[in-house]
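Quick one, tokens below:
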């Protein structure tokens, strides 16, 4: 080989080595791949065991036909249990019973089947139709540790646990705990220690693995924890509740994120996670790790068409296991309302379960709207009155901007005859028209965007309120006037059919909001310069769209926008009383006589016109 060939071969080897080095998987990717392989192995092992049991059972029946049916059944069961569960075989049969844990806020049932919390009732709340509010019941949830033991797959959710004789009931500042165990013989067991405080939605769970180091497969460095829950329907509108229900999670770097709210979604989280929450419209179930869950954590959310449930949620966690004689994992559950102050007091970011909006919209809600709302709520007055006062406070705070917008619009109205004259004079010369109009605005001291900018500054509050009312559990089942529940739509007429884009009912607050918005649009057109005929009717399209969109939304939100429009009408009326348009016109004429320095924009516009051959 000549020197060039040798150089080429060496370069190829260097490139291959570099490619292999830079593309080697990280430790997290290796761990995730091993996690997937072990999961597949678990499933395959389970299938093989079931096939073997069926085969052995058939052989056993053929080999001994003298055994009685009952004896044969019992023997087969014992044989099957032993083959399936090994040292946990004694826990494969038992009676499904439960004990009760109760405090001022929660009523829980701990089931002997799986040792899990099988029933959760929030005592201070009811469903939309007045029934006890139950987050999960019976088989609507799974909580299971999965691992290999003696070449067998053990799922703790399938086995029977030993319960204490009685449950506990705590009140006020008291606390209590109970222990349930999954026995594996000879002092070997898994223990769940549930703890409860008197006035707390959080339930402690300490998981102890005692003397299992010789039972769990030696090559297993972790256990899997499956947590699934069918989210039962709690609110009147299945569609609305489903549209805001999904899985939330918080990474250890304090970032909170969630799966899609509008479709089925799933994700594999490849960094440590502090908590995962199954969120509904106004309530959530959250599983929290004291020291974070190891990666990977797999979560999924699936929409359910069943009217009795809105979503099927699933999470799979990785729990480290070091093969010590005594190992513990500290977890806890939160079963409770999506109430901002309640969630915030835990200091782990769960208040993000309340969707207040991103960026500036969330800031407006957190630091302005919520404090004012809570202050008014402390006076124990009707929520319809609270919304009225809140609207007045917000409109009062925005009054300077509203006044500035009105004055700018009034100036433009006064200039309308001169603008119309220019439009007629230079209708064939768009660049010249633009130049002359800018000159007119400059001499008159009028900013053509002066009416828009104050309105844009008000937009964050309008959008913030759009997020605040549908997320406010305080409005849930609180009535005002004809609305029985301000958190959902008000209906004065239920239709026997469904109208596309509108719904199967008539919301009066939405109609009032829509009519007032149309009137507001009409007044704006009368105040401003002549509108392009093609745009004149487009301005009415948005209110009509609101009629369809808001018909299924929170009545509190429609009521707020209606009040805001009515207060704006009142402000406009008073502005007209105290603002003299003749005086404005006289001032503008005086301004036009003054020598005004050209703005940079005006200079650039004139330069462009000159380059295009437009003469002054």
């Amino acid at each position: 080989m000549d020197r060039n060939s040798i150089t080429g071969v060496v370069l190829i080897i260097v490139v291959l080595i570099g490619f292999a080095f830079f593309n080697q998987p990280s430790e997290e990717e290796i761990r995730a791949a091993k996690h997937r392989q072990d999961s597949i192995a678990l499933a395959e092992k389970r299938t093989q065991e079931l096939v073997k049991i069926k085969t052995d059972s058939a052989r056993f029946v053929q080999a001994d036909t003298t055994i009685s049916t009952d004896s044969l059944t019992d023997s087969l069961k014992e044989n099957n249990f032993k083959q399936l569960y090994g040292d946990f075989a004694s826990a494969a049969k038992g009676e499904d019973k439960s004990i009760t844990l109760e405090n001022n806020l929660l009523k829980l049932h701990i089931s002997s089947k799986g040792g899990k919390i099988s029933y959760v009732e929030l005592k201070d709340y009811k469903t939309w139709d007045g029934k006890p509010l139950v987050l999960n019941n019976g088989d609507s949830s799974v909580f299971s540790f999965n691992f290999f033991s003696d070449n067998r797959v053990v799922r703790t959710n399938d086995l029977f646990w030993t319960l204490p004789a009685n449950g506990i009931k705590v009140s006020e500042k008291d606390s209590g705990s109970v222990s349930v165990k999954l026995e594996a013989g000879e002092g070997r067991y898994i223990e769940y220690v549930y703890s409860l405080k008197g006035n707390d939605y959080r339930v402690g769970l300490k998981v102890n693995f005692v003397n299992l180091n010789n039972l769990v497969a030696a090559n297993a460095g972790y256990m899997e924890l499956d947590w699934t829950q069918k989210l039962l329907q709690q609110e009147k509108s299945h569609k609305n509740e489903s549209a805001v229900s999904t899985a939330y999670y918080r990474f250890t770097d304090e970032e909170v994120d969630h799966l899609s709210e509008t479709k089925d979604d799933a994700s594999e989280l490849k960094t440590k996670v502090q908590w995962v929450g199954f969120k509904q419209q106004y309530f959530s179930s959250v599983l929290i790790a004291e020291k974070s869950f190891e990666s990977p954590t797999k979560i999924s959310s699936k929409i359910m068409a069943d009217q009795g449930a809105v979503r099927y949620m699933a999470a799979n966690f990785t729990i480290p296991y070091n093969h010590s004689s005594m190992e513990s994992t500290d977890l806890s559950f939160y079963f409770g309302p999506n109430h901002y102050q309640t969630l915030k007091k835990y200091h782990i970011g769960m208040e993000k379960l309340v969707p207040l909006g991103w960026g500036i919209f969330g800031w407006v809600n957190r630091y302005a709207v919520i404090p004012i709302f809570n202050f008014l709520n402390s006076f124990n007055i009707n929520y319809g009155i609270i919304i009225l006062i809140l609207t007045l406070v917000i409109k009062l705070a925005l009054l300077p901007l509203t006044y500035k917008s009105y004055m700018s619009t009034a100036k433009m109205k006064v200039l309308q005859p001169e603008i119309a004259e220019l439009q007629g004079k230079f209708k064939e010369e768009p660049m010249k028209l633009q130049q002359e109009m800018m000159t007119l605005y400059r001499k008159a001291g009028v900013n053509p965007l002066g009416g828009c900018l104050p309105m844009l500054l008000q937009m964050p509050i309008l959008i913030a309120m759009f997020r605040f009312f549908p997320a406010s559990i305080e409005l849930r089942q609180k009535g005002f006037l004809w609305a029985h529940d301000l958190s959902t739509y008000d209906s004065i007429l239920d239709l026997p059919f469904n109208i596309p884009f509108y719904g199967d009912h008539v919301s009066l607050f939405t109609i009032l909001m829509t009519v007032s918005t149309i009137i507001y649009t009409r007044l704006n057109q009368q105040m401003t310069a002549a509108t392009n005929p093609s745009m004149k009717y487009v301005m009415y399209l948005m209110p009509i769209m609101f009629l369809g969109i808001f018909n299924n939304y929170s009545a509190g939100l429609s009521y707020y926008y209606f009040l805001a429009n009515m207060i704006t009408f009142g402000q406009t009326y008073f502005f007209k009383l105290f603002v003299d348009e003749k005086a404005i016109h006289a001032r503008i004429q005086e301004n036009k006589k003054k020598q005004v320095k050209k703005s940079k924009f005006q200079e650039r516009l004139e330069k462009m016109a000159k380059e295009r051959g437009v003469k002054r």
